[in-house]
Amino acid sequence: MNNSSAGPSSKARVGASQPSESSLKRKRGMFQKDLQHMMYGFGDDSNPLPETVSLVEDIVVDDVTDMVHKAQDIASKRGKLLTEDFLFLIRKDLPKLNQCTELLSMNEELKQARKAFEVDKEKLASHQ
């Protein structure tokens, strides 16, 4: 996700819409359990070194933060951050774009299924 040709890093930019780094104190270790499972899924040890997990967490948080700042820059003209802003940022990375669109469509299918299930549940309750 870090692309040196994509422009200056979000850390280098200081503007009115960007909070200072001192105000961005994040809770360290918040994603460590999830990252441990993901790392294991990608072939790491089932119990990776804490230093490795912390490093991966720092990298992921930095990359996601950078992407959100870039998406906010795109959305600032419209005033509203949309999913399409993120898709626009990854449009040239076809595997990532395809995976995201697949996940978004699966999410929509799950929403529809939950909605249908709630309607069925309401009909059952009203008939009893």
UniProtKB/TrEMBL annotation:
One Pfam family in the UniProt entry: TFIID-18kDa
Annotated stretches, region: Disordered: 1-29
Compartments in which it is found: Nucleus
A GO cellular-component term linked to this record: nucleus
An example molecular function term from Gene Ontology annotations: protein heterodimerization activity
InterPro entries named among the record's database cross-references: Histone-fold, TFIID_TAF13
UniProt xrefs under CDD domains: HFD_TAF13
Protein keywords: Activator, Nucleus, Transcription, Transcription regulation
Presence of the UniProt keyword Cell membrane in the record: no
Main location: nucleus
GO biological process terms held by the UniProt record: regulation of transcription by RNA polymerase II; transcription by RNA polymerase II
Protein's name according to its UniProt entry: Transcription initiation factor TFIID subunit 13
Gene of this entry: LOC101248069
